[in-house]
Amino acid sequence: MTSTIINHSKELGALSTFPPKKESNDFMRHHEIYEYIMDYATSRGVLKYIRYKMEVLKVKRCDDYEETGKWTVIVKNRLPGGTSTDVYDGVLVCIGHINRPKMPSYPSQDLFKVEIMHTYSFKDVAPYKEKTVVVVGIGCSGLDAAVETSNVARQAYVSTRSGARVINRVGHRCLPYDTILFRPYLCQMLNILPYQFLSWLLETDYLDL
C-alpha cells in the first residue's frame, strides 16, 4: 500500500551500526524504509554485487564441499537468456516467510459473489469507496487494511476469533510503545508471571498512562 507504515519504531528496527536519520519518522513510511536500506547498501558498497532479473535454478554443494565448504549456484538471466554457474563460499536463502499469500477457505465460499482478496494484493483503497468491507483477521496487515479502507468505505468491519487490544504506536511521553514495552526486565517477566496478570497490568497501567 502506498500509505504503509512500518510496525516497529526506527530505533528497534535499525541496524546497530547504521542508525536512521534523525528527521525520519519514528515509525517510518515505506519510502523511508527504502531510502534507509539503499543508504546502507550504498555506504557498504554492495549495490555493485546485486544482479537483477536472475532466476536461481539450482543450488548444490561442490564436489569438494567437505574440504572447502563451497556451493555451486546455477542461475538463468531472464532478459538476454542463458544460464551461468558460479561458486560461492556460502549461500543465504532470504525469500522471506510471507512472500506468498496463504488464502483460507470457508464452507460455501463459492456462493459469495463479491470480491475476496488477500492483503498481499491490496494496493489501493479507491476500489472500496462507498462499499462495505470486512477484514478477516487482526494481524498487522489486517489492521492496516481496515484503517485504510475505513477512510473511503461506507463501513469497515474487522472479524477476529479472539479479542485483542488495539493501541496507538506512541505511548507515555510520546515514546514509541515498543521502546517502552520491549525492555529486558519486561521480557523476563513474560517467562515468570502468568499471562492473565501481565494482560491486566498492561491494560490498567501502561494503556491508561
What is shown here, in short?
Belongs to the FMO family. The chain is an alpha+beta fold.
Biggest sheet record = 3 strands, antiparallel
Q: How many discrete structural domains?
A: 4
Oligomeric state of the chains in view? single chain
What is the mean pLDDT?
87
Strands in their spatial order, largest beta sheet: 1-2-3
How many distinct helices?
7
Total number of β-strand segments? 5
Enzyme class: oxidoreductase
Family: Belongs to the FMO family.
Protein name: Flavin-containing monooxygenase
InterPro entries: FAD/NAD-bd_sf (IPR036188), Flavin_mOase (IPR000960), Flavin_mOase-like (IPR020946), FMO-like (IPR050346)
Structure notes:
The structure is a single chain. It contains seven helices and five strands. The chain has about 210 residues and is α+β, with helices and mostly antiparallel strands. It folds into four domains: about 1-50, no CATH class; about 50-90, no CATH class; about 110-160, no CATH class; about 170-205, no CATH class. The chain has a three-stranded antiparallel β-sheet with strand order 1-2-3, with no helix packed on it. Strands 4-5 form a two-stranded parallel sheet. It holds the Pfam family FMO-like.
Q: What's the structural blueprint in terms of helices and strands?
A:
Blueprint: H1 10-13, H2 30-44, E1 54-61, H3 65-68, E2 71-77, E3 83-88, E4 132-136, H4 140-150, E5 155-159, H5 177-181, H6 184-190, H7 195-204
Parallel strand pairs: 4-5
Antiparallel strand pairs: 1-2, 2-3
GO molecular function: flavin adenine dinucleotide binding; N,N-dimethylaniline monooxygenase activity; NADP binding
Cofactor: FAD
EC number: 1.-.-.-
